[in-house]
Inverse folding.
C-alpha cells in the first residue's frame, strides 16, 4: 500500500515505530556496539583469568560492558521508554568514565590498580578516561547525549512502540 492510501492512524503508527538511527546515528550505534564487544571481551577475560588481582577494576570493566550493551540496544529500539533508557545509560556512562578516570589517575589503589597505565593488565575500559581506547569512552557519551537531545521520539509514538 502506498503512503497516499494509508490512513492517518497508519501513518502515526509508522512514525512511532521508526528507529532513531539514521545518518550519524548509525555511526554512533556502531561505535557503541564495538565498545560493547570490546568491554565484554576484556571483562570476561580479566574475570576468568585473574579476578583476584584487581576485583574492583575487573568488576567495573564488566559494568562498563553492560552499560555499553544496554546503551546500544536503547539507541536502536524505538519509543519513549527506550529513549529514556538511552539517556539514563549514557549519562551513567559519562559519570562512570569521569569518576573512574579521575580515581585511576589520583587514587589507583582505590580501584585495586597497581599503576595508572591505561594499557596495563589491570586497567579498565574507563581507566585514565578511556585512554586505552583512544579516549573514545570519554567522547562517546558526550556525543551520545548531544545526539539524543537532537533526536527526541515523535509525539505520535505509540505506547506500543515504547514497549517494543
Amino acid at each position: 500500500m502506498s503512503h497516499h492510501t494509508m490512513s492517518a492512524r497508519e501513518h502515526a503508527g509508522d512514525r512511532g515505530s521508526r528507529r532513531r538511527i539514521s545518518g550519524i546515528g548509525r555511526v554512533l550505534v556502531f561505535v557503541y556496539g564495538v565498545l560493547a564487544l570490546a568491554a565484554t571481551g576484556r571483562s570476561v577475560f580479566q574475570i576468568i583469568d585473574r579476578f583476584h588481582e584487581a576485583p574492583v577494576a575487573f568488576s567495573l570493566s564488566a559494568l562498563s560492558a553492560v552499560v555499553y550493551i544496554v546503551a546500544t540496544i536503547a539507541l536502536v529500539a524505538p519509543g519513549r521508554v527506550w529513549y529514556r533508557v538511552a539517556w539514563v545509560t549514557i549519562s551513567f556512562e559519562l559519570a562512570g568514565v569521569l569518576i573512574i578516570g579521575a580515581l585511576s589517575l589520583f587514587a589507583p589503589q582505590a580501584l585495586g590498580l597497581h599503576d595508572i597505565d591505561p594499557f596495563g593488565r589491570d586497567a579498565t575500559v574507563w581507566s585514565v578516561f578511556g585512554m586505552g581506547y583512544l579516549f573514545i569512552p570519554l567522547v562517546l557519551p558526550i556525543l551520545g547525549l548531544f545526539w539524543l537531545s537532537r533526536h527526541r521520539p515523535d509525539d505520535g509514538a505509540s505506547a506500543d512502540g515504547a514497549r517494543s
Q: What stands out?
A: The helical segments are 8-17, 24-50, 55-76, 80-106, 136-150, 159-163. DSSP finds six helices and no strands in the chain. The radius of gyration is 19 Å.
